[in-house]
Amino acid sequence: MDINMIDELNDVLEERGEEFRARVHITVKPHALLKGICLEKEGNKVAPTVYLEGHEEDTVEEYATFCQKAYHANSSMKEDMTMNIDKWVTAEYINGNVLPRLTHQDNLDRLNRNDTYYIRMLDLVVFFYIPVCKTENGYEGTITITNPLIKSAGINAPDLYETAVKNLEKSVEIKSMYETLNEMMPGVLDDDEDDEPVDDAMLPRMYVATNESKVNGASVILTQRFKDIIKTLFGDKAIIIPSSRHEVIVVDYSDQTAKETAKMIQEVNRTEVSAEDILSDHPYFLINGDIYQHDLTATH
After folding, report:
1. What is the pLDDT of residues 90-129, one digit of tens each?
2. Contact 246, 215 (CB under 8 A)
3. How many other β-carbons are positioned within 10 Å of the β-carbon of residue 112?
4. So where are the chain's domains?
5. What 3-state DSSP class applies to 186?
6. Contact yes or no for 51/34 (Cβ under 8 A)
7. CATH architecture for segment(s) 170-299
């Protein structure tokens, strides 16, 4: 699907009886230009936006189907949210469901514009959200915790970090790279009949850490469970690679590995990770239970 085929896309949507139409929406981000499609219906004040990244090889018909699923999932979610918003913004619901999310400090302007509640951690920022609904298509709605919401719900803001991290503890997932690749591409590591089957011991010691939903999973590094498991696997020192805001990769610590890893992260961020998902351009270190960045500034 090419962004210049927007008219053809709208023709397909009209033929299928859809009431919404697609409009090109370009978003400028640091180091990237995101090509979006805004799905609008006359009279609606809010319209979902989908992106072309990852769908370049789709035909117009295939991308139209993707747009239909996204639009109707969003409509169902908004209807559910409209009916249930009051129950989601109570102190009881927030404290029982709030989760942390990590972003880079370069995004502070956006957080401040939205009056988002956050705390600083090294060159990262921790802010908070609550999941509010999930459709059968897998689309999850979230509400970001803002300062006005904290005030209206009567939440004690200083307790929010501890509460959110505690809620996250139970969904920490840490698996070897072999397990992760096997889940993503079952059997691929063992498919070549001419080579010996690949097993876990043949791959470098790399572990992928995320949460159960695989969304905003890099925040698991804040949990004690993550630190305890990594200590068992790697001892007192390990390198944390910020693969994206959705997961991190953990490898053995060495000064040489740290230098090589920093270069690798910068290259991968430039070529493989969308601007929306970049977490940081350098590794972090887990040493005796504390997280450090490259200048060895600690956080707990």
Report:
1. 999 999 999 999 999 999 999 999 999 999 999 999 999 9
2. yes
3. 10
4. 3-83, 89-165, 170-299
5. coil
6. yes
7. 2-Layer Sandwich (3.30)
